[in-house]
């Protein structure tokens, strides 16, 4: 009897303890409880990593809270796999340390997590101004990249919402080998003349959406590298910057196809390019870039509104000049309105070795607003096959 009672008591204790464990699972992990200072001076790297590890070890939903304050952080990795869903609620401002020698290629790196939410209105400030003079990437192809603000690699099922990224030292956000991520209501800003401060760069990823966002930087607002499938860009305001870009493609060996891109309801203001596809000559890889739809786009004083460049040369010297082996196919431009500044509205220069096919220009109304003498022919078509439909102004060459 006594034994049975004690077994019941133990069972009961176990029940209470495991109940408590389940209750704790939807836990809150305030970085301040892990030693973060938030005074803008003290390094908080350790505190953030410890809070992440604690949250990562529990099942259910773990919320890491970053309260108001300025948190200085060196390179920090938030690594999974985690037991449950990770939520990072950022109210304060995160400041990147300016000691360049401490960095590899990232400031904050989210890796191997399935189920991640970052939100809260907080700011990620890369403090890039002191690093930008060390950027060598305009001079050489083999430059050592400066650190990127936020890197997501091998991340699945994530929502990144209502945060800002400011003055990254290099790309602001880099998505790599990831799936099912939505970037919603993101604000990205860096000066117009800051080098390689691309807003969001996506490579080797599937089902990535960028929606309802405002991006103004010194390079591409959004750039899409090789190996991407099914991307959506919707309601993005871009400018200043270099526009929305696919490429450069064909730079390295083993690059995979880019298939399925839907860019709609975007507004490009004062950008050097609008919608651009660029591939390098003498590509060591042979790949496809197919099934892109660009529709309902406003161009507001964009220099090159619609451009395909298969002779792209990113640095001062591109020695070999063999035609690009990237095949561009089924690219639709529909319902594009606004103003442009260069003499050429459609600059479609494709590869002799792999001519563009299925390029469609439909319902386009672009008005020249530049200072140069307006070209008689605002359309350049080289090795390009396709069609134009509806009312297309200026006159198209396909
Ligand atoms: C992501 O979520 C989907 C749908 O909820 C699920 O089917 C998939 O397994 C998740 N991804 C991973 C890597 O678990
Ligand atoms: C493409 O992406 C959208 C949005 O992420 C998603 O709803 C859709 O299911 C995806 N399609 C495929 C074939 O994965
Ligand atoms: C492109 O995206 C828009 C907005 O999400 C959507 O309305 C439209 O149906 C999509 N088109 C295609 C072909 O996926
Ligand atoms: C595009 O954005 C610019 C700059 O914010 C704004 O002035 C313009 O009204 C916008 N155009 C449309 C049609 O939304
Ligand atoms: C404009 O130039 C293209 C070649 O880039 C040519 O095919 C087209 O006929 C020209 N259009 C006019 C109206 O001259």
Query: How much of the polypeptide forms β-strand, as a percent range?
Result: over 45%
Structural class assignment: mainly beta
Kindly state the number of beta strands: 30
Unreliable residue runs: 1-25
Number of helices: 2
- If you consult CATH, what is the topology? Pectate Lyase C-like
Level-1 CATH class name: Mainly Beta
- Our measurement of the CA-to-CA distance between the termini, rounded to an integer number of angstroms, reads 92 Å
Structural features, described:
- The strands form two sheets. The chain has a 19-stranded parallel beta sheet that branches. Strands 5-8-11-14-17-19-21-23-25-27-29 form an eleven-stranded parallel beta sheet.
- The chain has one domain (31-393): Pectate Lyase C-like.
- The protein has helices at residues 2-25, 45-56, and strands at residues 28-30, 39-43, 61-66, 70-73, 76-79, 85-90, 93-96, 106-111, 114-119, 123-125, 148-153, 156-161, 164-166, 173-176, 179-184, 187-189, 200-203, 206-216, 222-224, 229-238, 244-249, 258-269, 273-280, 287-302, 304-312, 326-340, 346-349, 356-368, 379-382, 384-393.
- By secondary structure, it is mainly beta.
- One 2-acetamido-2-deoxy-beta-D-glucopyranose binds next to strand 20 and strand 22.
């Amino acid at each position: 009897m006594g034994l049975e009672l004690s077994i019941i008591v133990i069972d009961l204790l176990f029940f209470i303890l495991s109940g408590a464990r389940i209750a704790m699972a939807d836990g809150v992990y305030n970085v301040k409880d892990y030693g973060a200072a938030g005074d803008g001076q003290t390094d908080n790297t350790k505190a953030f990593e410890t809070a992440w590890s604690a949250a990562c070890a529990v099942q259910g939903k773990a919320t890491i809270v970053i309260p108001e304050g300025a948190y200085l952080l060196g390179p920090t990795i938030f690594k999974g796999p985690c037991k449950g869903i990770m939520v990072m609620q950022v109210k304060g401002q995160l400041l990147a340390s300016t000691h360049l020698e401490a960095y590899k290629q990232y400031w904050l790196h989210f890796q191997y997590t399935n189920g991640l939410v970052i939100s809260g209105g907080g700011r990620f400030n890369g403090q890039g101004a002191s690093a930008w003079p060390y950027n060598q990437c305009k001079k050489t192809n083999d430059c050592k990249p400066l650190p990127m603000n936020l890197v997501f690699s091998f991340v699945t099922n994530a929502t990144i919402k209502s945060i800002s990224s400011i003055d990254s030292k290099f790309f602001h956000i880099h998505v790599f080998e990831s799936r099912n991520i939505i970037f919603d209501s993101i604000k990205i800003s860096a000066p117009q003349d800051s080098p390689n401060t691309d807003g969001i760069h996506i490579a080797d990823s599937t089902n990535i959406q960028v929606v309802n966002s405002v991006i103004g930087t010194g390079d591409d607002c959004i750039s899409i590298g090789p190996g991407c499938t099914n991307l959506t860009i919707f309601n993005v305001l871009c400018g200043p910057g270099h526009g929305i870009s696919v490429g450069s493609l064909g730079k390295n060996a083993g690059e995979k196809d880019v298939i399925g891109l839907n860019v709609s309801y975007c507004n490009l203001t004062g950008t050097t390019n609008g919608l651009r596809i660029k591939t390098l000559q003498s590509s060591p890889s042979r790949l496809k870039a197919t099934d892109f739809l660009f529709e309902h786009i406003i161009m507001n004083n964009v220099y090159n509104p619609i451009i395909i460049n298969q002779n792209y040369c990113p640095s001062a010297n591109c020695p070999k000049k063999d035609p690009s082996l990237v095949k561009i196919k089924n690219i639709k431009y529909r319902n594009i309105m606004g103003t442009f500044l260069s003499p050429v509205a459609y600059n479609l220069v494709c590869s002799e070795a792999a001519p563009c096919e299925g390029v469609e220009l439909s319902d386009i109304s672009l008005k020249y607003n530049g200072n140069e003498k307006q070209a008689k022919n605002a359309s350049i078509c080289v090795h390009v096959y396709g069609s134009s439909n509806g009312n297309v102004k200026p006159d198209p060459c396909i």
